[in-house]
Each structure stands twice: as structure tokens, then as C-alpha cells.
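Re: that chain you flagged

S.,

Sorry for the slow reply, it's been a week of failed gels. I finally had a moment to sit down with the sequence you sent. For the record, here it is as I used it:
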Amino acid sequence: MSVRMPPRDEAVLARRDEIVAALRRIVPGEGVISTTREMRPYESDGLTAYRQLPLVVVLPSTTDQVSQVLRWCYENGVKVVPRGAGTSLSGGALPLGDGVLLGMGKFNKVRSIDFADRVAVVEPGVTNLAVTKAVEHAGFYYAPDPSSQIACTIGGNIAENSGGVHSLKYGLTTNNVLGCELVLITGEVVRLGGPHLDAGGYDLLGVVTGSEGLLGVVTEVTVRILQKPETARAMLVGFASTEAAGECVGRIIAAGIIPGGMEMMDRLATEAVEQFVHAGYPLDVEAILIVELDGPRAECDHLIETVSAIAADCGAQTVRVSTSEEERLLFWAGRKAAFGAVGRISPDYYCMDGTIPRAKLPYVLQRTRELSAKYALRCANVFHAGDGNLHPLILYDANDPDELARAEAFGADILRLCVEVGGVLTGEHGVGVEKRDLMPTMFSEIDLNQQQRLKCAFDQKGLLNPGKVFPVLNSCAELGRMHVSAGKLPFPDIPRF
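Prediction finished late last night. Pasting the C-alpha cells below so you have them in one place:
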């Protein structure tokens, strides 16, 4: 495994039988998996380039069991890696050889739905799509919709602050989660937020959302549900160049139009998707945009005319507007199947996730093509164009170590490029291990130390998901030490305690 992980604690490894026995007492029956063969499905998440067997897998089914497991691990100095459905693309759920993998898949119930207050209370193992399925009979849905929504879970969505094709208008997970029940590493159960709109004090719910399993384990979630719009129509627009498509994206937003979703795919991705889904995508263009407009029918009709005019000014070669709900869903089915479809044209792919200012789209796409030539690897571009969230898919063969090394270097250069043009390292996939060593590209040592101090407030022993996010995992004691330079303390006039 090319990614560096914390050294294994030999003392913990020597106590493996004792650890497994203790966990079996807390989670009896089939709740503990300890054989190599049975643990194999848990050795990686969606970032399959990196694999490592856990010390043991624990599958609790109640909040009390989660609390007891975490308390025991805290008292006995054993690391814990929380895991949802394992669809993370940043290695956020990569196990530790000396750590417990805490799988939350049994927390799969919708506990309550309140249509009057427009909230649903669900367990973290409920899939993203299942929330919408539970409320659609009453004309409601859950807005964030990652491409993996059929498999990814709400708990994992919170860990990575996941987005989706409709997040441009309706927000990411953080904008649609109202509260959660959280178990700390000490076993303490706390509640953040609730069915109300907002809460006073520090925004701890905002801190937990996107914290990648470093602060606690979510056991219940209160989400916002929305009423379906009166009308929703999708436009399929083809362009002779990716630069022209990128220019169209910028002009649509500049015109004050916020589509329900606006996605872009280049020729390589479009061809793979069309062979897989047969969505009717044009194959004689270099890039396509899918633009969805929703709201009252009259408003949609007006916006379709406006977007069509903008697309024509940008040199659009083809424009199609969905004429039925089935056709609209077919347009989106192709986009949502893009990652799987690319698997038909390459044995492996490395999915990146960076976000840039929309105005930089043409420049970044041009630079990405240059990097593709430099590393001699193909790259299929699929991304949330409306909010500048790129998902370049670098195609490689994992059986060739040189190709994997080039894919990693190619991906790192793309992420550095995102930061260079004023963007960020991740939009929704998280940092995990994939972007961990690139964090200094975006943050200073002071920034990173302050972030680690926040982790210390929740997890003083550093037992929750260590080795992720932070390139250098200082202990909480190290972060609190007084630094002495040239034999002198800083600010000597301040009283010391």
C-alpha cells in the first residue's frame, strides 16, 4: 500500500484475542467478525487502490452497543474506524490493522416522518435514496442526491458532507441535516440540533458534518425533507468544446439563474455512459451539459427559453428539452451511472474531487488535458458544473504499479491546480487518506494545528479514525506544549500557570 498509515501498536495486536472476546460480550451473536476471510469485504472503501484488513469488525445494532464499544476502546486504548456503506472515495473508511472497524449498517430504520414540520428522523445506515422513497408518496423528497445514492448511507453523507446533482440549488448535506445523536469516544451520548430550524450557541452540528468520523459516531439523524416542485424539466445541451460548455455554465449563473442541477461530461465520459445507459446523449460533441429547471410551469418555460439563448450564444450544437418525466429521469440516469459506466472502458479509475471558481472551468479543463498528456493516462471529466465541483476520473490499471503511481501524481497535480486557481481540495468526497498529504497546499501549519485542537476537544487520545485528514498527527499533548525559541518563552510578561 503506497499511502503511509500510523505505525501499528504491537501491544494492541498482542491482545487481539482479549479484544475480540470483550467485544463479543458487548455485541453478541453475529455482531463481531474476526476471521480473515469474513473481514475481507471491509479491507477498503470506494478508494480501492488502498487496502488493509482491520483488527476486527464490530456490527452494533443499538446506540447502547455503540456507546459500550466506544467506551471499552477508550478505556483500553484501542483505535476505532467508523464505517457506513463503504462508498467513500477518499479512503475515509480505510481500516487500521490495529483498530476496530465499527460498521453501522444495521442502523437502517426510518424512525419517524413529520410532513407538517417537513422532517424525517432516520438511522445512519438508511440509504440516501431510501429517505426519498419513504416520503415520495406524499410528494416530498430528500434533496442531496449523490450518484451513489442507491447505496451510500446518511451517516456516511454526514461524515463527508456529501452533495449531488441537485445540491447547486438545494445545498449539501450540511444544509439539509437539522440534528443528530452522536456517541463520543468516551461512550457519552449527546444530541445536537433537532427538528427545529436552528439552535443557539456554537454550531456543533456544522462541526460534526464533514468531520470524517474523527469526532464521534452518529446513531440518529434528523433531516429536512422538501416538497417536490410543480414542474421539473431537463435540458441536454451539446458543445464542440469543453471550454464552450464551461463558458455556458458561467453565463447561466451570471444571468441570475440557479438551476435545480447543472452537470457536465466530456466526450470520453459521454461515450462510456451512452453505451451503458442508452440515454440518447449526442456522440458528435466534445461536452454535454444537463441543466434542470424546476418550479412553477410558467417559470420553467421562461427559464428554458433563456438558457437556450445563452447556450446558442456559447455555440451549442444541439439542445434537447425533456418532454416527459421519464425522459427527464433518463437524462439523469446517464449522469448518475457515469462512474460505473467508465468501469467498462478501464480496469480501474481514480476519482478526484476538487472545487474551483466557475469562471476558471475552461482554464482548468485545458490544464487537465495537458496533465493527461504528461502522465500518459486518459481522464474522463464528470462534475457538478454549477458549483465548480470537479470529478476527473483518471483511468489506469491497478495491476501496473507504475500506472498507479502516475495516477496518484496526476490526481495530486489536479488538486494543486484547484487550489492554485482559488479553489479547494475537496467539495464533497472528504480528505481521508487521498488528500491528507496535500492539506499543507491549502492550510498553514497554524491552520492545521487549530483544526487538530478541535479534534482534541472531542477525542483527546486520538483514537477515532487516526491517520486520516491530518498529514502529521500530533498528539493532543504535543499541540498543547509551549514552544521555546532561542531559550526564551514567547510573551514572557504573561503569567504562567
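What I noticed first: Residues 401-420 form the longest helix (20 residues).

Talk soon,
D.
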